[in-house]
Amino acid sequence: MTILVTGGAGYIGSHTARLLAERGREVVAVDSLERGHRAAVGDLPLVVADVSDRAALAELIDAHRVDSVVHFAAYKAAGESMEHPGRYFHNNVGATAALLDTVAAAGIERFVFSSSAAVYGTPESLPVTEDAPVRPESPYGESKAMVETMLAWLGRLTPLRSVSLRYFNAAGAWPDGSLGEDWSLTTNLVPVVMKSLLGRRPPLEIFGTDYPTPDGTAVRDYVHVLDLAEAHVAALDHLEAGGESSVVNLGTGVGSSVRQVLAAAEAAAGREVPTVLAERRPGDPVAVYADNRRAAELLGWRPRFGLDDILASAWAWHSTHPDGHGD
Ligand SMILES: NC(=O)c1ccc[n+]([C@@H]2O[C@H](COP(=O)([O-])OP(=O)(O)OC[C@H]3O[C@@H](n4cnc5c(N)ncnc54)[C@H](O)[C@@H]3O)[C@@H](O)[C@H]2O)c1
């Protein structure tokens, strides 16, 4: 039986599909390739389709005997969602609703969903537990909360069981540098730091140096993409063992400041990151990091990699693939 990985040509989906295949699981990826890359899928089977295409999805589920779904396919930029909210509701919510119809019609009962710490908005207290209020501050975060709500209803009313994984800041690459994030569309800190290191952009702006943190810069929870991939394997195992539906934070539980990220990047690259100091950005929280105890208790998941591993793997990938996947 086969696991369908939607968004399998994207950053986190491609790492998870590769890890699942390495673990001997049958995998088929589906991706529109709008924001993904065929090369990221390697030799694994890829169907190019939109997840809202019911006929194409039904056909591939039948042909590959799919019995579980890991759903990454979505748009992911909170900033873009503030300018184009409709785009996010259509693709992240509407297309997922269509996918869930197809999944239900095929009798599939196991579903792992890429949610986000963006559902919490600015947290009131740290570390952030799964019981913190869901108060998204962008259509992107809202789209993730809406899918979680759909999954909760389907869990009550149908045989579908799901795990929604609320990722904190995904970063890093396959440790040997053979697979990583295509940085052409990203605004996340680690790839932007890499671009600055490689002279592919102007110096990095450090937004805010007067935050109430030890070094004055904002603090986030960076979690290695391979640790995220492992968590999806663990979530599938949990559902296959008959485990109940849940929402689970995926973070290291450790906050790292912008300056700590820069120091780790410089250690990995052996050169200095060009930077300029800039004003705080409106709406940026001072610090966000996860309480990850539920992931340990429910899924037996513990992150193996730290900040140095994240920056070393990111450097291994970007310095050898300055044009990303090259397509
Ligand atoms: N990267 C992060 O830090 C982060 C943090 C929290 C949550 N997430 C979530 O994880 C998931 C994967 O993120 P990523 O960083 O790998 O993003 P990504 O953009 O690299 O990958 C998403 C993939 O989905 C595909 N896609 C989008 N809409 C589709 C559709 N309707 N049908 C078929 N394919 C479609 C894109 O072409 C792309 O290949 C997303 O749902 C994102 O919201 C990411």
Which key phrases capture this entry?
single chain; 327 residues; alpha/beta; UDP-galactose 4-epimerase, domain 1; 7-stranded parallel beta sheet; two-stranded parallel sheet; 17% strand; binds nicotinamide-adenine-dinucleotide
Widest β-sheet, arrangement of strands: 3-2-1-4-5-6-11
Bound molecules: nicotinamide-adenine-dinucleotide
Please give the count of helices.
Answer: 11
| Count of DSSP strands | 13
Name of the level-1 CATH class of the largest domain: Alpha Beta
| CATH fold category name of the largest domain | Rossmann fold
CA(first)-CA(last) distance: 31 Å
Order of helices and strands: EHEHEHEHHEHEEHEEEHEEHEHH
Q: Biggest sheet: strands, sense, closure?
A: 7 strands, parallel
What is the 3D shape?
A: globular
Radius of gyration from the alpha-carbon trace, in angstroms: 19 Å
Q: Would you spell out the secondary-structure blueprint of this structure?
A:
Layout: E1 2-6, H1 11-22, E2 26-31, H2 38-41, E3 46-48, H3 54-63, E4 66-71, H4 78-83, H5 85-105, E5 110-116, H6 139-157, E6 161-167, E7 169-171, H7 189-197, E8 204-207, E9 219-220, E10 222-224, H8 225-240, E11 246-250, E12 256-257, H9 258-269, E13 275-278, H10 293-299, H11 307-318
Parallel strand pairs: 1-2, 1-4, 2-3, 4-5, 5-6, 6-11, 7-10, 8-13
Antiparallel strand pairs: 9-12
This protein binds nicotinamide-adenine-dinucleotide.
